[in-house]
Specification:
152 residues; mainly alpha; Serine Threonine Protein Phosphatase 5, Tetratricopeptide repeat; 10 helices; TPR-like_helical_dom_sf; repeat
């Protein structure tokens, strides 16, 4: 039901169901919170994420990827970078190639190519090898800026 309400853009009703679940004495899990995170707007999502971590619910891969995807799709790459750092601090899930590629691509799409290259170097420093998608995002980024020599 929570997923259905979130897909109908009625996250408020999703939270009502969560309240009822908790009131009845049932325990919630990470999947429930991931569903609600997906339904929330970016600002509310980051705040909600911090609250659930504070209350002892460990985020998993799907928690992080859902939030990163939302942040990147809304052009909020700076918040996505902060979340990548939280992944390292909180634990439970080390950032991988999919996470880095998503943020690098987002940075390059909003013409923050320098930030994309900086994250690229951090990624390599953390032992994550770039792939075709990483290079494609960076090349498209410098092309958008008209830096043809750098692209080559």
């Amino acid at each position: 039901m929570i997923n259905c309400f979130c897909n109908l853009n009625r996250v408020d009703l999703g939270f009502s169901i969560l309240g009822k679940i908790l009131k009845l004495g049932y325990e919630s899990d990470t999947t429930t919170f991931n569903t609600l995170i997906k339904g929330l707007c970016v600002t509310s999502t980051v705040k909600f994420f911090d609250e659930i971590v504070e209350k002892g619910f460990p985020p998993d891969f799907f928690t992080y990827i859902t939030i990163l995807n939302g942040l990147c799709k809304t052009g909020n790459a700076s918040a996505a970078i902060i979340l990548l750092k939280k992944m390292e601090e909180i634990g439970g899930c080390e950032p991988g190639i999919v996470d880095y590629n998503m943020v690098i691509d987002s940075l390059c799409k909003v013409r923050l190519v320098t930030g994309g290259f900086k994250l690229f170097l951090e990624m390599i420093g953390n032992g994550v090898s770039p792939d075709l998608i990483t290079y494609k995002s960076l090349i498209k980024g410098v092309c958008r800026l008209g830096q043809w020599k750098e692209a080559t």
